[in-house]
Design brief:
Elements: E1 4-9, H1 12-20, E2 25-28, H2 41-50, E3 54-57, H3 70-85, E4 90-93, H4 104-114, E5 118-121, H5 131-141, E6 145-148, H6 159-169, E7 174-177, H7 186-193, E8 197-200, E9 203-206, E10 223-226, H8 228-239
Helix pairs in contact: 3-4, 4-5
Length: 241
């Protein structure tokens, strides 16, 4: 069986490592501490210039919840159009109503203006009030993929729900498990759920190379990088399935 591995990249070095180590797709993000927000124009442009693999920037104007004002939605629309202009393969979005349902009206607008790019609905899905209703709504909106941990903190914890979603989706949309996926659990998750695409952060933290550190500032200037060895281990594990 063929499997697809998507990883998060928070910097250009991680993009380079991802492609060099056999990753199929990158979710491009800024602000790891906020769970990922829209990357800058310069970052998207640079990533597109050096990558031949699929590039999907997240379109999320801020951290926090996924209930957006009209002003924020205007920003989201502009960023989707920018990604299309820069030649991205797709975008990653997620919009909810206050009652925990999918914001279908706005999601349909975004899939329309994104075309012919693909659209992934991210883990805002895991905050919906009914995952099967949300599944049908997202399919109706024209998204090609849902990133989910099965409405649990990690995909391993949510395997039962992910399996049920894969079966309910019945190839109408891709269910892509994510959150806490690594080389030690991916085979079990793949075999149990029947999923064929997977999302991993595969991250490690790199210390600053600064020779001078101001002692009065009391902060750690570490940076999030892709762990190339872990990526290779995940891919090798999937090949064994």
């Amino acid at each position: 069986m063929d499997f697809t591995l998507e990883v998060i990249a928070f910097n250009i070095e991680s993009c380079i490592l991802a492609e060099a180590n056999g990753v199929s797709r990158i979710e491009l993000c800024d602000n790891q501490a906020d769970g990922g927000t829209t990357p800058s124009y310069g970052f998207i442009k640079a990533a597109r210039a050096i990558l031949s693999i699929e590039l999907y920037p997240i379109i999320r104007p801020r951290g926090g919840d996924f209930l957006y004002s009209d002003a924020e939605f205007d920003i989201i629309k502009s960023d989707v159009l920018l990604c299309k202009e820069l030649g991205c393969d797709g975008v990653v979005i997620g919009l909810l109503n206050a009652d925990g349902t999918v914001d279908k009206e706005r999601t349909k607008i975004l899939t329309s203006i994104a075309y012919p790019m693909g659209v992934t609905f991210h883990r805002a899905f895991d905050r919906t009030n009914d995952m099967f209703e949300a599944l049908e709504d997202i399919i109706e909106c024209g998204c090609e993929r849902i990133l989910t941990s099965g409405q649990k903190p990690t995909a391993y914890d949510g395997m039962d729900n992910i399996k049920a979603l894969v079966q309910k989706a019945d190839t109408r949309i891709i269910i892509m498990p994510g959150s806490g996926i690594n080389s030690k659990n991916i085979v079990e998750i793949a075999q149990y759920t029947g999923a064929t695409e997977f999302h991993s952060s595969a991250r490690n933290f790199v210390k600053s190379k600064m020779q001078f550190a101001q002692p009065t500032m009391n902060e750690q200037l570490t940076n999030v990088h892709l762990n190339a060895e872990e990526v290779t281990a995940i891919i090798n594990a999937l090949k064994s399935c």
